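Usage

Read records sequentially. Each one opens with the input sequence:
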Amino acid sequence: MKTPIAVLLLAIAGVSAAGAEGAPAQTADPALPVVGAAGGKADGVQLEKALQRLPWRQFKSVVEAVPKLRAGVEAFGPVGWQIVRDNYTRYPWHKNIDKLDEVQKKQLSELIEAAQAEK
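and closes with the structure output:
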């Protein structure tokens, strides 16, 4: 399980080191809804997009507050956080988010909404 994530993170780091474009500018529409309309359940792709729109400091605090997401990054030690910092706006977080149960997705959604309100 950790190996595919490690390979993906290293591949992303390689693209970044090879002169890929810098982190894209934040979108002008920070008020996009985080929670889906269907029954109020959060969708992994919606959560991913909302998470990627956050500035780095808010992004990191949200990820640190969700144990499964934090563990996925911390499994690679300090270099894991550096790779994430360089690539968090392009990394496919929905794969990790889809592994969360509904309670954890709701918590993530609430954390993202709180971080968006802080902007």
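Summary fields computed downstream for this record:
- Residues 37 and 65 are 25 Å apart (CA to CA).
- The chain has one domain: 2-22+33-118.
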